[in-house]
Amino acid sequence: MTDVRKLRKAEIKDLDGIWTIIQQAIQKRKEEGSSQWQDGYPNPSVIANDISNGYGYICLDQEDRILAYVALIFAIEPAYEEIEGNWISDQPYACIHRLAVNQEPYTKGIATWIMHAVEPICVESGYHSIRVDTNFDNVGMLRVFDKLGYQYCGEVFFRGAARKAYEKILSA
């Protein structure tokens, strides 16, 4: 069976649909008892900034419905400059933030699909390392990182809280 999902750069016209998905993720994290994303971040201006900087990507189904959103950033992440632990490489890296999956309808495996789909974009852009972080209690994302071969590197502090940091080296 052919995969009918596609990943494309987000456009400002996608903002409302993306924001709906982000709000679902905020609510899901709240229901799971997490403090992640419960303080007004991310918000529509953060997502609009992602889009205007070319960082925002959306996953679409065959009917062009937005299944998920992710920010893929090819710039130094200030929070990653200091780590309690060690990154596995010193090479330039891509950074993934704000991955959120549509809960209506929820499609199992979308976060894994997106994390896989951004890898060739990184390599084509000359980046052979991806760094990510998440809350200690974000079991879903921790499972995705493990499944896709991300290596735990230590803790970074993002917006005042410790987060688990991971890196994956991509082959050419």
TrEMBL record:
GO molecular function: acyltransferase activity, transferring groups other than amino-acyl groups
Keywords for this protein: Transferase
Domain N-acetyltransferase: 5-172
UniProt key word Transferase: yes
Protein name per the record: GNAT family N-acetyltransferase
Lineage of producing organism: Bacteria, Pseudomonadati, Bacteroidota, Sphingobacteriia, Sphingobacteriales
